[in-house]
Request: fold
Amino acid sequence: MSVRVVQVTRFGGPEVLVTTQAADPVPGPREVVVGVEAADVILFEARIREGLAKDFMPVRPPYVPGGAVAGRVLSVGEGVETGWIGRPVAVRTGDRGGYAEQVLVPADALIAVPAGLGLREAAALMHDGPTALGLAEAARTKPGEWVLVTGAAGGLGILMVQLALAAGERVIAAARGKRKLDLLLELGAHAVVDYSLPGWEDRVREATGGAGPDMVYDGVGGDIGLAAFELTARGGQFSAHGAATGGFAPLDPEEARRREVTVRGIEQVQFAPDVAERLAERALSEAAAGRIRPVVGQTFPLEHAADAHIAMEARTVIGKTLLLP
Reply:
């Protein structure tokens, strides 16, 4: 017997994502096999596929990408309660393995999907949920403060907008294109700006009465992230956690000190495994209770993983992108 998986056959463009067959996974002691119903896709997986992360990550072709899935437990190994079989679960698979019909994972990595939450939504939260909650916890913003979210129509950005609104903050959501801005207005953002248009910084200043945002969540990096940093209010906070444009914002530490801006980097979302699991469980619970809601903007069949990467790299996607085996 065999199952379908998507392999990166060599470092390169989306064409190196090839659907192939692999042997059925067999659980060993304290392991389970999960039948995948939705696999998360994140932009960083495209960077790994291109070989841009090989200097600091051990992943080498051929490998199966994908770091998080949701589905149902198909079989269990020795030492695992048989009551898991058939249960809906979500699980982080590390830095590979998720683009597959079935995944073999440690039983202690399973997170039961709470009642009222779909498997697609659960998969959509496994990366972005912990990140969003971790960023919000680190910021400790206050009700009434102005918050600017760049990349606000992405999977993480949408959650950051929702968390800020739930905390009573005033949100400026920045994204690219009318379709994304319309969604952000529907979610309740107080103001939206299109940073593909000149003068977007002026709109942010106007919305904040000239003072600038008290908190900036920058998921974009590059020149947009730098412009967002320059907008940050004196004494404010700037989270430089994103590099969707290919690099983090080139911030001047001396300028941050001069304006008393607290800057946090990507290290704030590099969680220890136990912390990541706690935050993922909390994210699923928050979503089941209706306090946050991931937006699954597009799905692709497993064998069209290359198309999913193309769409993400072209910035045409909204919210989360999932593969459906």
